[in-house]
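[Target chain]
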Amino acid sequence: MREAYHEQLEELADQLAGMCGMAGTAMELATRALLESDLALAEQVIGDDSKIDDARASCEEHAYALLALQAPVATDLRSVLAAIHAAESLERMGDLALHIAKAARRRHPEPVLPEQVKGYFAQMGKLALELARKAQQAIETQDVALAKQLEDDDDEMDDLHRHLFTVIMDRDWPHGVAAAVDVTLLGRFYERFADHSVSVAKRVVFIKTGQLPGTETHDDV
């Protein structure tokens, strides 16, 4: 019975890893749609978003079934609870990619981004994809060191986001208010995507150690 239960926990982890891959792909395609004003790619991201929503529902159904199957304790219980929280973050990552794709579609055939800031978004898109892929790998391997690394990687996204904001707020910004609003919102979507990737990775740490990073207690404090 316990062996079958652990096999189902592994299946649940596989579902989460698959979801993470889907969210990363959605962000990759949404970024290309944004940078290249590619309507077909934007429509693909928008059309595929329901698959991520369905995957979350499937993960949660699986997790609740495991809770009902038998009363899990210790690591098993942490695994199920972490999966529920991670599935929520992964769905939100998909939603953030969706928002970017919708922005590209809304402005088509005109570009959303001024040339002045395209380089920032190319970098943020690359980093967002790397974070999603590392989160997926952390889920698959249960590698605590890798999971913790994402928090450091996220600092780079925060730096890019802050610098982008200074560009928009410069008094010599020549592209008007509408473009500044678009750039501000899009930058926020990338920053939040990265934050959710970190949140997913923290759930891996929680499963293995029983504590979320940043909540550890220290005897000398």
In short: The helical segments are 2-36, 39-69, 74-107, 115-141, 144-169, 176-209.
